[in-house]
Amino acid sequence: MGSVLFLDSGVSFHMTGDRDLFSYMDEKDLGVHIEMGDDGRYILTGIGTISFQKESGKPFVLKEVMHVPGLKKNLISMETLEDKGYDVVFSEGKAFLRSKTTR
Questions:
Q1: Is residue 38 flagged as an active site residue?
Q2: Which helix (H) or strand (E) holds 80?
């Protein structure tokens, strides 16, 4: 995945406006409206899976990513990552994911 991902501590779930990032998406009208910090209102139109290549070369799969057309950034929820068993560690300008089960 060549797009930039932003770790965000203020969003409750992963979301992107880029339909091309999804390897799988269940498109449906969920009747959910998202309000962002820029006062923009967006409609959630599907839920799916995206993956990207980590610096280590291993793929990382994100499930339950919301498709929000019109959203300009790809937002990764730190809260959701932590709920899924990862610690998010920042060091020297980089973010690292560490599985809580491999400590």
A1: no
A2: helix 78-83
